[in-house]
Amino acid sequence: MDVLRPALININGRIYRRNVTKDSKEEHYEEEEEEDVSYVGPPESEYLEEDEACDTKLIEQTDKGYRCAIEVPSVLYKYIIGKKGETRRRLESDTKTSISIPKQGVEGEIVITGSHKAAVSSAVTRVELLVESYRKKQPFTHFLSFPLSNPKIQEGFLTFKDEVLKQCSQDHGVEGSIFQNPAKLHMTIGTLALLNETEVRKACEHLQQCQHFIRDITEGNPLALEVTGIEYMNDDPGMVDVLYAKVNAKDKSDKLQLIADRLVEHFVSAGLMVREWDRVKLHGTVINTLFRKDSVEEAGGPGRQTMSEREAFDARNILKKFGAYRFGEFGLNTVLLSQRYSSDCTGYYTSAGSANFS
């Protein structure tokens, strides 16, 4: 690591700099366990400088010393407790503080108390670093989506599916169960790991804030889109796992791309999303081998094939015959905060929040 450009860590909107001495070692954690995990902390010299520790305004003085309460989703408690309480005991011993954690499954605050303000500050910083590390390992629970489940697009998709199965079912791996559910056709803008209701509400509030710039871009009108053509994203069309429908604005503008990129920028800045690409890849999945009949409906769900078990299909004839296929046109008027592994009364993903274009 370049010592002149140390890594920056975003924790709850605050930016920390990690300082590393030449003798310090890489921070490491033991393998995650379902119920408890041990933590091996880095050398003290690797932690943040004292003047860059937690925001001192969060630390209250009491008649017994100092106290700081921090919100942590209950699913992350086990990483602070550690195997047989080892992690918490070590943190308390190292910082000369007491760490009170609610019962597993009970949402609340972790309360850190100590005789000295600096000790509480150090403990808070170490807990937040630990939480942030394991938060990144949690599977995503929600995603921002542009729904493509318009009746016209669904009709075009079902015709596409029927024709592909009529003309290409002899090709390796091509069969009905690898096609998307027409009720769940969508474009994914970005994924979020929202670990409790408080975080879901926060994400909904931020999505509402985005409505202002969205309407500035769309001039308060639905965005006319056309879904035409398919593409793949690997090197060998004879061994494909996913096919995507191309989605573009009818007026050939970059408004849809601009909205998607601005949404990601906003949610990344809020600490609710991790940036994966410089620009959002606008596409709607129409075929995915993870949808095969011997697995459940969505990627990553219980019983679904693992990446190594996926059986690719030969897409060469599909691309040749349907590469310019027109699924249809429609007016997009909303972006949704969609819940993974869910369905509403329409068959689309259950929505936790939305922002409208008009």
Summarize the structure.
The chain is of the alpha+beta class and 358 residues long. The chain has helices spanning 77-81, 86-95, 117-135, 151-168, 197-218, 255-269, 316-322, and strands at 8-11, 14-17, 28-29, 39-40, 60-62, 65-71, 97-100, 109-114, 142-147, 186-192, 223-231, 242-249, 283-288, 326-332, 334-339, 351-356.
Write up this protein.
The chain has 358 residues and is of the alpha+beta class. 27% of the residues lie in helices and 24% in strands. The strands form 5 sheets. Strands 5-6-8-7 form a 4-stranded antiparallel β-sheet, covered by helices on one side. Strands 10-9-15-16 form a 4-stranded antiparallel β-sheet, with helices on one face. α2 runs antiparallel to α3 and α5 packs antiparallel against α6.
Termini separation comes to: 47 Å
Cα-atom radius of gyration: 24 Å
Structural class: alpha+beta
**Spatial sequence of strands, sheet with the most strands:** 5-6-8-7
Q: Could you state the order of secondary-structure elements as H and E?
A: EEEEEEHHEEHEHEHEEHEHEEE
User: What's the total helix number?
Assistant: 7
The average pLDDT is 85
Helix percentage: 25-40%
Largest beta-sheet details: 4 strands, antiparallel
Spans with pLDDT under 50 lasting ≥5 residues?
20-53, 295-305
% residues in beta strands: 15-25%
According to DSSP, the number of beta strands is: 16
- Outline type: elongated
